[in-house]
C-alpha cells in the first residue's frame, strides 16, 4: 500500500503544547490542526486536559465553579495537576504504542514551570515540543469567545447563561494572576509560535522540522471571520449520459439548464439580507465546470488545474462496464481500496488530496467562495471540512444539480443544500457493481448521502 506521509520523510514526532488563557480559541485551533493533519494522513490526536479534569473531579462536584481554578484552592490544584499528568501520560503512550506523529496537549499551561515540565518529558521521549500560544487583547474577540462558552464548554451545559458568563470570567482572572506569556528572550531556546489577535501578528521562534513548519503555515492562514463555502458539481455532462468517465465533455442540455439556474440557487442560499454579497468563483480547467459557472454574475472567477477531476489514466473515456470487462483486476482493486487505488497512468484519491492541499490552505484564508468542480474532488474537499474518514470519503454520494453550503463554525461545520429541480442521471457507483445509481436510495452503509445527512453534523 503506497503510504504518503510527511513524517516518513524525516521521522519526526511533534507534541504541540497549547498555551494561553481560557477563551483564546486554543481548543478550536487544536482541533483544526488535528483535522487538517488527519486529512493529510498524518496521525494526530488532541489530548484535552479539561476533559481529564472533569473525569477526575466531577464525582466530588469539586469543579462546580470558578473557585476551583483559584491558585489558593488546594484541592482544585491537585485535581488539575493530576489531569495534566494523565493527559501527558496517555499522550506518550499513544506516541509509543500507536505510532502517533503529532499529539496536541490542549491545556492552559500558563506558567514557565509547567512548560519546563512538559519540555522535559518530551525530550526524554525524543518528541519535539512545539509551543503554540494564542495571545489576545482584542476585547471584542474575547467577549465573543466568552459568549460562546455556554455552547462550547461542557462545564456549563446545565448552568444558565448568566452564571456561565460571570463564572467563566472569574476563572480567566485566576489564570491571569499566574500567566507568563512566551517571550522571545526568556524562552529563546523553545520552539514556539505566538499568535497575537488570532493571526494579525505572529512571532515564530526556532521552527526547525518540515512538519513543524507545515503546522506553522497552516495556523498562520486561519481566520475567524464568518463566511460560507458553496460546493457544486458541474451540470450533467454529455459523458454522464453515456456513462463514460474522464474526458473534457460539454454540458448536456439538462446540464446547461442547471448552469442557468445556478445564480438563482446561490441567491436563495445567500438569503434576503445578503443578496449583494460578492462571491469568488473557482472552477477546474475543464469545460464542464466553466460552462456551469458561465451565468454567474460574479466578477472574480478563477480556474485551477488542482480542481480537475481525478485522472482516470488509461480508463479515461471508458464506462465502468468497459473497465470491468477490460481491466477486471483493476476494477476489483479499486472497489477494495478506493482511496489508495491509482488508475493505470492516472490518479488515486490520495493523489487528489495531495494536489488539493494548496486549495485548502487558500480556502482557509479566503472568505465567501463558490467552488464548481468534480465528484472525486468535491468528496475530498467535503471530507476535509466534515472530518470524514478516508475509508468513507470515496464512497460519499454527492449528487449532480445540487448546491451545497458549508458554514464553518467554532466546533463544527453546518451543511445545507439546495436541490435544483432539474433531473440528472445518477453517477453514483456502488461497491461491487459497474451499474450506476443508488440501488437502495443511497442508504447503503458505505455511502454517506448528503441529501439525507441534512443540516448539522
Ligand atoms: C489586538 O487588537 C486590539 C483590538 O483591535 C488592539 O487594541 C490591540 O492593540 C491589538 N494587540 C496587538 C498586540 O496587536
Ligand atoms: C539555552 O541553551 C543554551 C545552550 O544549550 C544554554 O547555555 C542556555 O542556558 C539556555 N538558555 C535558557 C534561557 O534556558
Ligand atoms: C460525469 O461525466 C464526466 C465527464 O463529462 C466524468 O468525468 C465524470 O466522471 C462523470 N461522473 C461519473 C461519476 O460518471
Ligand atoms: C463542445 O461544444 C463545442 C461548441 O458547440 C464544440 O465545438 C466542441 O467540439 C464540443 N466538444 C466536445 C468534446 O464535444
Ligand atoms: C460586488 O461587485 C460589484 C462589481 O464588482 C460591485 O459593484 C458591488 O458594489 C460589489 N458588492 C459588494 C457588496 O461589495
Ligand atoms: C490546565 C493546566 O495545564 N494547568 C496547569 C498549568 O501550570 C500550572 C503551574 O504548573 C498548574 O498549576 C496548572 O494546573
Automatic annotation (TrEMBL):
One of its GO terms (biological process) is fructose 2,6-bisphosphate metabolic process. Its EC number is 3.1.3.46. InterPro entries: 6Pfruct_kin (IPR003094), 6Phosfructo_kin (IPR013079), His_Pase_superF_clade-1 (IPR013078), His_PPase_superfam (IPR029033), P-loop_NTPase (IPR027417), PG/BPGM_mutase_AS (IPR001345). One of its GO terms (cellular component) is cytosol. Keywords: ATP-binding, Hydrolase, Nucleotide-binding. Residues 433-445 have a biased composition (Polar residues). It is an enzyme of class 3 (hydrolase). Residues 429-457 are annotated as: Disordered. Residues 446-457 have a biased composition (Basic and acidic residues). The keyword Cell division does not apply. In the C-terminal section; belongs to the phosphoglycerate mutase family. This is fructose-2,6-bisphosphate 2-phosphatase. The lineage of its organism: Eukaryota, Fungi, Dikarya, Ascomycota, Saccharomycotina.
Amino acid at each position: 500500500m503506497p503510504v504518503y506521509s510527511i513524517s516518513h520523510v524525516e521521522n519526526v514526532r511533534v507534541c504541540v503544547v497549547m498555551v494561553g488563557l481560557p477563551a483564546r480559541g486554543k481548543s478550536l485551533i487544536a482541533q483544526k490542526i488535528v483535522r487538517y493533519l488527519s486529512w493529510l494522513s498524518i496521525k494526530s490526536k488532541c489530548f484535552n486536559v479539561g476533559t481529564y479534569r472533569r473525569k477526575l473531579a466531577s464525582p466530588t462536584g469539586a469543579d462546580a465553579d470558578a473557585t476551583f481554578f483559584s491558585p489558593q484552592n488546594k484541592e482544585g490544584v491537585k485535581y488539575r495537576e493530576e489531569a495534566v499528568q494523565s493527559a501527558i501520560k496517555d499522550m506518550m503512550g499513544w506516541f509509543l504504542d500507536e505510532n502517533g506523529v503529532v499529539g496536541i496537549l490542549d491545556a492552559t499551561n500558563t506558567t514557565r514551570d509547567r512548560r519546563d515540565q512538559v519540555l522535559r518529558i518530551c525530550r526524554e521521549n525524543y518528541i519535539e515540543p512545539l509551543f503554540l500560544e494564542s495571545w489576545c487583547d482584542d476585547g471584542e474577540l474575547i467577549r465573543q469567545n466568552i459568549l460562546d462558552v455556554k455552547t462550547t464548554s461542557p462545564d456549563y451545559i446545565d448552568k444558565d447563561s448568566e452564571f456561565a458568563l460571570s463564572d467563566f470570567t472569574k476563572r480567566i482572572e485566576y489564570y491571569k494572576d499566574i500567566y507568563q506569556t512566551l517571550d522571545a528572550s526568556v524562552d529563546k531556546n523553545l520552539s514556539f509560535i505566538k499568535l497575537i489577535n488570532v493571526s494579525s501578528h505572529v512571532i515564530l521562534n526556532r521552527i526547525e522540522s518540515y512538519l513543524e513548519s507545515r503546522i506553522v503555515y497552516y495556523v498562520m492562514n486561519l481566520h475567524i471571520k464568518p463566511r460560507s463555502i458553496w460546493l457544486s458539481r458541474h451540470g450533467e455532462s454529455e459523458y454522464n449520459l453515456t456513462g463514460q468517465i474522464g474526458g473534457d465533455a460539454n454540458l448536456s442540455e439538462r446540464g446547461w439548464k442547471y448552469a442557468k439556474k445556478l445564480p438563482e440557487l446561490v441567491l436563495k442560499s445567500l438569503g434576503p439580507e445578503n443578496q449583494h454579497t460578492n462571491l469568488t468563483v473557482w472552477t477546474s480547467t475543464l469545460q464542464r465546470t466553466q460552462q456551469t459557472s458561465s451565468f454567474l454574475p460574479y466578477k472574480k472567477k478563477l480556474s485551477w488545474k488542482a480542481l480537475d477531476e481525478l485522472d482516470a489514466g488509461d480508463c479515461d473515456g471508458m464506462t465502468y462496464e468497459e473497465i470491468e470487462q477490460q481491466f477486471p483486476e483493476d476494477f476489483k482493486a479499486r472497489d477494495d481500496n478506493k482511496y489508495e487505488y491509482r488508475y493505470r497512468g492516472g490518479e488515486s484519491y490520495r493523489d487528489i488530496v495531495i494536489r488539493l492541499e494548496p486549495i485548502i490552505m487558500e480556502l482557509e484564508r479566503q472568505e465567501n467562495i463558490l467552488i464548481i468542480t468534480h465528484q472525486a474532488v468535491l468528496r475530498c474537499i467535503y471530507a476535509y471540512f466534515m472530518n470524514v474518514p478516508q475509508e468513507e470519503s470515496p464512497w460519499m454520494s454527492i449528487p449532480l444539480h445540487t448546491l451545497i453550503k458549508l458554514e464553518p463554525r467554532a466546533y463544527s461545520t453546518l451543511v445545507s443544500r439546495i436541490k435544483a429541480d432539474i433531473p440528472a442521471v445518477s453517477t453514483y457507483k456502488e461497491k461491487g457493481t459497474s451499474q450506476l445509481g443508488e440501488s437502495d436510495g443511497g442508504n447503503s452503509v458505505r455511502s454517506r448521502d448528503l441529501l439525507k445527512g441534512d443540516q448539522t453534523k
